[in-house]
Amino acid sequence: MRIKFLGGCSEVGRSAVLIDGKILIDYGIRPADPPEMPAPHNGRVHSVIVSHAHLDHSGMIPKLMNSFPDLFMTPVTCDIALILWKDTIKLGNSHGIHIYDSEDVERVAKCARLFNYRKQFVVDSYVCEMFNAGHIPGSASVFIRNEREDISVFYTGDIKLENTKLLNSASLDEFPCADVLIVESTYYGTEHRKRSELEREFVDSVEDTISRGGHAIIPCFAVGRTQEIVMILHAHGIVPYVDGLGISVFKIFERHPSFIRDSEALSAAFKEAKFINGKRKRKKALSQPSAIVTTAGMLNGGPVLYYLRQVHDDPKSKVLLTGYQIDGTNGRR
After folding, report:
1. What parts of the chain have a pLDDT lower than 50?
2. CA–CA gap between residue 148 and residue 304 (Å, rounded)
3. What are phi and psi of 284, to 5 degrees?
4. Could you report the per-residue pLDDT of 85-101, keeping only the tens digit for each?
5. What's the CATH number for 3-182?
6. Range(s) within the chain of domains with CATH label 3.60.15.10
7. Which of 9, 115, 295, 328 is the most exposed place for a label (fewest CB within 10 A)?
8. pLDDT tens-digit series, residues 111-139
9. Alpha-carbon distance 143 to 5, whole Å?
10. CA atoms within 13 Å, Cβ hemisphere of 238
11. How far apart are CA 23 and CA 309, in angstroms?
C-alpha cells in the first residue's frame, strides 16, 4: 500500500491523503488569503471518501468532478457539504476568486454514494468502513483494507473522545485494528481543561458582558460549533441571536436526528433562539445588550464582520472566540 499526503501535514487545512494512487481521503482547502489547495495529483482519482464537511477536509472536492470519481460519505456530511460549497462559490466570487462553479457542485450530488456508520462498502479491491469520529454530525473515521495485499489503514480524521452537548464521542472500542494509523494531531501535546469548566467560564463571560450593557459577539463555525454554543447558552437560560450559515445547518441536523446526541434538546434551544436574516434584525440585535452567535468562526467573512465594525470601539462589548484559528486568518491575527 502506497500512501501519499497531498496536504494537511504540519498544518491545519487542505487535508488530502491518497491511497495507492486510486482512493483519496478528503480534499480540503486552507482558509488563508488567498486560499491554499492540496498539491496536484496527475493521475485519475477513482474514488473519494469524505471524512466530514468542514472545508479544510472537503473544500476542494467539487474541483475533482471533471473525472467523475465515486464519492463516499455519510448522508449528513453530503447535505452539509453541498451548502458549504455553494457558500464558498459565493464568497470566492465576491473576492474575484473562481475555484469551482455550481455545475461542479451539482455533479457531486449526482456521484455521491451515502453510507451510515459501520456499513461496509467496496472500492475496487478495497473494503471500506466509516466510524463515528465525534467531531461534528456525520464526521467519520475511515478504515480501508486492501484485500489483495492484506494490509489496512485507519484514518481518524478530526476526532473527539469526549461527549459534547451536541454529539456522542468517538468510541475507541469500536475502532478496528489496522496496520497503518493516520491520526489527527491539531492539539497534540496540549492538556485540555475539563469541558464543564470551560463551558462555565464561557457562560460567565457572556453573562458579565450582557450585565454591563454590552454585546457578546460569539464567532462560530457554521457546522457543529454554532449549534453546540446555542445549546450551551440555552442550558444556562441565555437566549442568543443567531446569524449566518449556522441556521441552515441546524435545519439539516433536524433532518438527521440519529447523528445528534439529543435532537430534542437541539430543537428546543433553536426554537427559543432569535434568528437574524437581514440588516433590520442585525440593528435590532445591537439595540440592547445581547449575545450574538454568528459566522464565520475564523472572522474571514460572514455577518461577524458587520458586528465587529459596530462594537469595535465599545469597551462594554466583547468577542469570544470558540474554535481553532488558523494562521493567516483574521481570528489568528
Report:
1. none
2. 51
3. -65, -40
4. 999 999 888 888 898 99
5. 3.60.15.10
6. 3-182
7. 9
8. 899 999 999 999 989 999 999 999 999 99
9. 17
10. 27
11. 45
Cα distance between residue 261 and residue 267, in whole Å: 12
Q: Quick one: cell of 42?
A: 496527475
CATH 3.40.50.10890-classified regions of the chain = 195-319
Q: Whose CA is closest to 28, among 57, 49, 69, 4?
A: 57
- Indicate the class that CATH gives domain 195-319: alpha beta
* Count of positions (residues) in the chain: 333
Q: Which three cell numbers stand for residue 240?
A: 442568543
